[in-house]
Amino acid sequence: MSVYLCIDLKTFYASVECVERKLDPFSTNLVVADESRGKGTICLAVSPKMKMLGVKNRCRLFEIPQNIKYIIAKPRMKKYIEYSANIYAIYLKYFSKDDIYVYSIDEAFLDVTNYLKLYKMSAIDLAKKILKEIYDTYGLTATVGIGTNLYLAKIALDIMSKHTPTNIGYLDEEIYKSKLWHHKPLTDFWQIGKGIETRLNKKKIYDMYDIAHTNPKILYKEFGVNAEFLIDHSFGKESCTIKDIKNYKTKNISISGSQVLFEDYSFEKAMLVLKEMIELNSIKLVEKNMITNTLGLYIGYSKNTIDSTGGSIRMKRYTNTYSELLPYFLKLYDNTTNRIIPIRRIGISFNRLMSADEEQLSLFENQEKIAKERKLELTISNIKQKMGKNSIIRGMNLEEGATTILRNKLIGGHNAYD
């Protein structure tokens, strides 16, 4: 029987900030947020003490009750990455990297099946040992789910561990059925969002028991092939392993980038940011020696005033040069974007990628000019890698409303340093 651990670092960003200040996360009111972005900014994390007071994670600053006094810590993504890497090093003391799957900066799956005999410990005792080392070394509290497959480990973490004094939850298929078949809401379960829950409710399906006892034809008609996951998970089954995840190779390769603007942008002002994003991602294509012929655009509007716009466009040929990609993106932007409503989110993607070595040369294109531009972009990339992302920039990056210089100092869209 396989045994997996799913370890989560409790309120990770907020706990790191408390530890750095020599404060107890369970008795300190602290939120991680960039106050300079205004009271509407989202809190990346709140301390456990704040949660006890009813403050929800990912809330906005203005939503925190005024009677609560709290510390605001500016995000320091580089610091959080350092802590995450150090904790990953603890896992490596006990397990091979082949048996570790990092799910996010604060969460990881561990296949401990072959280690229980080695360490002569039960899964619970091994989990306790790792949690103690994390706390003793870095002052961070972690929770863990133990399951006989990846899905059950995740559910044991998300639902069961919260209700135990040890911060450890355990599930096998039988315990899952007996304790969670009638658990509500469905959104507590991994990979079931509000939209899926609503669609299930319309079919008079309200819990995992209902899914397990619904005619599969009804579920397949509603969800297509994804119904298979719902049905398997309703019985606590999951065939995927960490080895499967690591061996997975996607058929359709793509490169994408997105950003939430710091303020509302006009149509013209947002076009500048779009150009910057095209340039940055075209360099990624050159670095990876990839070319594309299909482009995607997403535009989100301020306060969700109207539905997002955008779409995709197919180019006449494969390329990775900025000068060739730009006109197609601008055409798509011009044809699909609302010119009146302020813009707050922009996303682009390069799809149907293939190796530049497979490119079919055209007699009608100036191959010397294309090769020269690619060489220039690769040189720019090398300079940035050696000297820093802002060591060489385009003139447009200095225009009012440009975001590249500022975003080059961020990690994941947030402040990187102290």
Structure at a glance:
The protein is built from 16 helices and 15 strands. By secondary structure, it is α+β, with helices and mostly antiparallel strands.
Describe the fold and architecture:
The strands form four sheets. This protein has a five-stranded mixed sheet with strand order 5-6-1-7-8. Strands 9, 10, 11, 12 and 13 form a five-stranded antiparallel sheet that branches. It has 418 residues and is an alpha+beta fold. The model has no long low-confidence stretch (mean pLDDT 89). It has 16 helices and 15 strands. It has four domains: 102 residues, Reverse transcriptase/Diguanylate cyclase domain (Alpha-Beta Plaits); 64 residues, MutS, DNA mismatch repair protein, domain I (3-Layer(aba) Sandwich); 65 residues, DNA polymerase, domain 1 (Orthogonal Bundle); 161 residues, Dna Ligase, domain 1 (2-Layer Sandwich), CATH 3.30.1490.100. 40% of the residues lie in helices and 20% in strands. Helix 10 crosses helix 11 and helix 13 crosses helix 15. Strand 14 and strand 15 form a beta hairpin.
Number of helices: 16
Mean pLDDT: 89
General shape: globular
Radius of gyration: 25 Å
Q: Which structural class should the secondary elements be placed in?
A: alpha+beta
Top CATH class of the largest domain = Alpha Beta
Give the CATH H-level superfamily of the largest domain. Answer: DNA polymerase, Y-family, little finger domain
The figure for the number of domains is 4
Q: Could you tell me the strand content as a percent range?
A: 15-25%
Number of strands: 15
- Order of strands across the biggest sheet? 5-6-1-7-8
What's the story with the biggest beta sheet?
Answer: 5 strands, mixed
Approximate helicity band: 40-55%
Please give the alpha-carbon distance between the first and last residues: 46 Å
Q: Low-confidence parts lasting 5 or more residues at pLDDT below 50?
A: none
CATH fold description of the largest domain: Dna Ligase, domain 1
CATH architecture level-2 label of the largest domain: 2-Layer Sandwich
